[in-house]
Amino acid sequence: QVQLVESGGGLVQAGDSLRLSCVASGRAKSNYVMGWFRQAPGKEREFVAGIRWSGGSTYYADSVKGRFTISRDNARNTVYLQMNSLKHEDTAVYYCAADGNAGNSNFYTHQGYYEYWGQGTQVTVSS
Q1: CB of 19 within 8 A of CB of 36?
Q2: pLDDT digit string, tens, across residues 58-100
Q3: Which of 1, 11, 88, 96 could serve as 22's disulfide partner, Cβ 3.0–4.6 Å?
C-alpha cells in the first residue's frame, strides 16, 4: 500500500509560479512511476506529467511542456511539480498518482494505469 499526500496548491495570478509536492509513504518505490493529473470543472481528468522513480525519466503533456517540471527527491520520498507561467486554463484540482509497475511508458498518460491516488490539491489561476 502507498499513501500519497499532495500540498502546495493555491490561488495565483496568470504568469505566476507554484510548486506542488506529493509525499509518498508505504512500500519501497524503486520500480514505481509517479504521475500528476488534473481535473478542471466539467472536464475529464487529464495527464500532466510523469516520472520514473528509478532513473528519473520524465514525461509531459504537450499543454505543459516548457512550463512545468516534474522531479523527485528520493531522500524525502517526494515528487514535485514546478509550475511556471501559469495560465487561467491551468486551473484544476491536481492529483498525484503512483503505480508499482513502471514498465511501459506508453501507458503513463492513462489514469487507469495508476493504482494509488492522492486526495488532490486545488490550483486556481486568475486571469
Answers
A1: no
A2: 999 999 999 999 999 988 999 999 999 999 999 999 999 999 8
A3: 96
